[in-house]
Structure formats: structure tokens, C-alpha cells
Specification:
Elements: E1 4-12, E2 18-26, E3 32-35, H1 42-51, E4 60-63, H2 74-87, E5 92-93, H3 97-106, H4 116-131, H5 138-143, H6 146-149, H7 152-159, E6 164-166, E7 170-173, H8 188-193, H9 196-199, E8 208-211, E9 236-237, E10 241-243, E11 255-261, E12 265-270
Parallel strand pairs: 3-4, 4-5, 7-8, 8-10
Antiparallel strand pairs: 1-2, 3-11, 6-7, 9-10, 11-12
Helix pairs in contact: 3-4
Bound molecules: manganese (II) ion (MN).
Residues 37, 66, 98, 213, 245 line the site of manganese (II) ion.
């Protein structure tokens, strides 16, 4: 019996171009474990992973993007994803808005955001520091350039991450989907940036949408509309979607979350704090 079916999905490199990438869709996978917005929190990721009753060859781990920035160990996170992908090709790691910010700053020459600082000030600084070798002298550290220390392989790996992944029952995406639109019909930037329009919508996309991206209460999302006085660093559970960004990497850090499907069981790892 064939273990895999070949399946084509569209991978958007940026808002200008896209190409089709062949991926392996697992047809015998039992369970899916989904995590999002690791944001350089390597210790929490590995501790959370250890909790999971995962059979790596039969189950799938899907991480929904924003692997980097803000947290202290982005380099280690990217290293780990590259290792996992080589060992378990059926696992999926998606592209988030922070990957887009970083690649635009370092590779695309600002074509999308026209700003290096946008990435650097939103956690890119911590990503850069995670790549600076501890062995450098203080003087060397003061003059080292970002492109000197971030391996091309890491940038290439991040560039190939798809913006969404679909199974029979679920759509996995970093930000979300516009109501009424299938994943492939969305503007590729909406897939990684959309918030309220998606979260507020009770539109049925035909499959449950599993997403990250929106957990913080820094004005990005008006939680008060739900009568909440404080920001719920808990998964967002609706009939048509489940949000699993629980703000692991913020100064008021809470936890990293894993969702087990189809059981809809949650696992949490307390944030180490920043
Ligand atoms: Mn994020």
C-alpha cells in the first residue's frame, strides 16, 4: 500500500510571485498535533513536544508559522524544524507574517514592507542575537552583520514554507481566511495577516480552520466585543475554527499550546518568560 499520495499546493513566495510545490499528503496518518507562534521559544517547544503522545511516523506535527522573532532561541527553532522536516517529511511547517517580515528585510530588499525596522523592532533583533556566536569577542559582536551569521539554508528553508495546508477535515493557516474564499482564492498576504474579519466570521469554509496569529490584546483584536475584560490567552474555540496562539513569547507570557486532532484535546507548556 502506498503510504503517500502526491499532492500539489500553491506556495506563495511573496505577494508578487508564487509557484507550485509538491508535498506529500499523508493518507494513513492517525492524529494531527498543531502548534503555532513558537516565536523563538525553543525550550517551551521541546518541552511541549515531549508531552505529546505522538507517533512521529504515523501522526503529523503541523506548526502554523511565526517560528521566529521575539523569543530568545529562533536559531534553535529553525534548526529543529529543518531536522524534523528531513526526518518526517509528512510533517508541515507553515509560513507566518514574521517569516515574511524577516525575508522581506533580509532577502526581498523591502519590496513588500519597505522597512527593515518593521522586522527588526518586532522581534527581529532577538532573532539576530540568537544567531550571533557566543564565541565572538565583544568587539566582533559589535560589528557583526546579520547576513554574516544567518545561514542561507535557514533563509531558503523559510522561503519554501507553504501558506496553508489542507487535509480532508481541516485547513491549517497562520492568520486565517477571508469569508467566502477558499484558501487558494485568498490574497497570499491575507493568509498570514487577517484578524478580525476572519475571527468574527461564522462563515463555513467546509472544513474547520486551525489558525494562530491572533492572541495578543495590543489593539489588534477587540476582545471587549465578547464581553471580556482581559485578554484571553486561551485557545479560541468556535464552530468553524480553533485558534491556538496563546502568546507564549510576550512579556506577559503565558503558554505554548498544542491541539490534538481530531480529538480537540489541548496540551499546554508554561512559558519560561522573557
Ligand atoms: Mn505571531
Amino acid at each position: 500500500m502506498a503510504l503517500w499520495t502526491e499532492h500539489h499546493i500553491i506556495v506563495y513566495l511573496n505577494d508578487i510571485s508564487h509557484y507550485r510545490l509538491k508535498v506529500n499528503r499523508c493518507i494513513i496518518c492517525n492524529m494531527i498535533f498543531a502548534i503555532s507562534d513558537v516565536h523563538g521559544c525553543y525550550d517551551e517547544l521541546m518541552a511541549l513536544y515531549k508531552q505529546l503522545p505522538i507517533n512521529p511516523k504515523k501522526d503529523q506535527l503541523i506548526i502554523l508559522g511565526d517560528h521566529i522573532d521575539r523569543g530568545p532561541k529562533s536559531k534553535q527553532v529553525v534548526n529543529q524544524l529543518i531536522k524534523w522536516k528531513a526526518k518526517y517529511p509528512h510533517w508541515q511547517f507553515l509560513y507566518g507574517n514574521h517569516e515574511d517580515l524577516m525575508l522581506d528585510a533580509l532577502v526581498y530588499g523591502g519590496r513588500i514592507y519597505n522597512s527593515f525596522d518593521l522586522w527588526y523592532q518586532q522581534g527581529g533583533r532577538e532573532t539576530f542575537f540568537s544567531y550571533v556566536p557566543k564565541s565572538l569577542t565583544r568587539y566582533e559582536k559589535s560589528i557583526v552583520q546579520i547576513k554574516d551569521v544567518i545561514p542561507v539554508e535557514h533563509l531558503e528553508f523559510l522561503m519554501t514554507l507553504p501558506r496553508y495546508y489542507e487535509t480532508e477535515d481541516y485547513i491549517f493557516v497562520h492568520g486565517g481566511l477571508k469569508p467566502g474564499l477558499k484558501p487558494e482564492e485568498n490574497d497570499p498576504q491575507d493568509l498570514i495577516w487577517v484578524r478580525d474579519e476572519f475571527i468574527d466570521s461564522d462563515y463555513d469554509w467546509g472544513k474547520k480552520v486551525i489558525f494562530g496569529h491572533s492572541a495578543d490584546g495590543r489593539g489588534n483584536y477587540n476582545w471587549k466585543r465578547f464581553g471580556m475584560k482581559y485578554i484571553p490567552f486561551e485557545p479560541i474555540i468556535r464552530d468553524n475554527k480553533i485558534g491556538i496562539d496563546t502568546a507564549c513569547c510576550y512579556p506577559s507570557s503565558k503558554k505554548l499550546t498544542c491541539l490534538q486532532l481530531p480529538d480537540e484535546k489541548f496540551y499546554f507548556e508554561k512559558s519560561r518568560g522573557l
